[in-house]
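ZP: hey, is the magnesium ion complex queued? I don't see it on the tracker
AM: it wasn't, my bad. submitting now with these inputs:
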Amino acid sequence: MTRIDFRQVRKRYAPGQPLTINDANIEIDSGEFCVFVGPSGCGKSTLLRMVAGLEDISGGDLLIGGQRVNDLPPAKRGVAMVFQSYALYPHMTVAENMAFGLRTLGADKAAIDRKIKAAADILQLTPLLERLPKALSGGQRQRVAIGRAIVKEPKVFLFDEPLSNLDAALRVQTRLEIARLHKDLGSASMIYVTHDQVEAMTLADKIVLLHAGKLIEERGSVAQVGSPMALYHRPTSRFVAEFIGSPKMNVLPARLLDAQADHAVVQLAGQPVRVAVDARHLAPNAQVQVGVRPEHVVLAGEGEGAALPVRLLHVERLGDASLLYVDGGAGVGTLTVRVEGAAAQAPGSRLALRLFPGQLHLFDDADQACRRTVELPA
Ligand code: ADP
Ligand code: MG
């Protein structure tokens, strides 16, 4: 059983530099697939390299399987890491690349062969075992790098942006393979670093979203931890709300008219709009922000009553759906709306948008979210 605990973990690369990791408290359960995600430079690789033992820890405690490992050398931690750059030996075959780490540990040949065979089976590398890396595609090379981690039979797998060098189709395929690997390996815990929120949403049991932070104290700190659906439906801040989901959430300025335990009414573009949140802590007349995802805005049909009037600026047709970029006028600005199918409307058309109370988010003037009061998936 291998849980991983970050307790008040800090990292400062050099004296006088700001903290790269600021009091990180993260709990990763045994067997869990945990994804560290966030903008470039927020400290994801730093956190991962601290687990691997490749970076010193400046403060706090890091525990693997309940044991404090701050001072334990990498080879004794029971972890294996897969990098974006594959890092294969070019003059060694696939089999030799996978065997190398085990040989240096002094494992016997029969055991090494058995482990390579099993890993090659899982990763469909059996026909490629005698090839050199230069005769492999990018996806195959990354599978070899994963195979090299599997044969070590680690308790914890660490992945640092392993799909970033692959083209779009291979990224999806390898993503599925990594998800299957996690199922097949059952008890192994995985920490997976990516800047791509789609990878985080599709792979994670638990997402740890890190701040890039405009403020020093925000840098390298945890913005929210939770399941993919929790971060999508219940973001606790505007930062999380805008990071998760594509295209990103629209955020519109509004003023609070009425604040109740189960709903608020705000003035948005001159109209009263109801939002299903607990708004009791907000000050009367407070400046607030209404968030709505592009997929939750609906074009109003005729005779449906009050709706937000907008002008269509531009249409992107994706085949299955279209993205409409619309102008809501002064105080509202540009919004993105996702509609099913190929939109027929031409730029310049006048449209009206309907917003539903249960689909809206409400943020205060410090970008913190109000708790939503509709029933939402976990
Ligand atoms: P991410 O993986 O999220 O893109 P990193 O963990 O690589 O971010 O880096 C986080 C911050 O720490 C960045 O500002 C980066 O410049 C800094 N950093 C990373 N490695 C070093 C290093 N060896 N020395 C000094 N600063 C570093
Ligand atoms: Mg990185």
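AM: back. The CA atoms of residues 315 and 324 lie 5 Å apart.
ZP: great, adding it to the tracker
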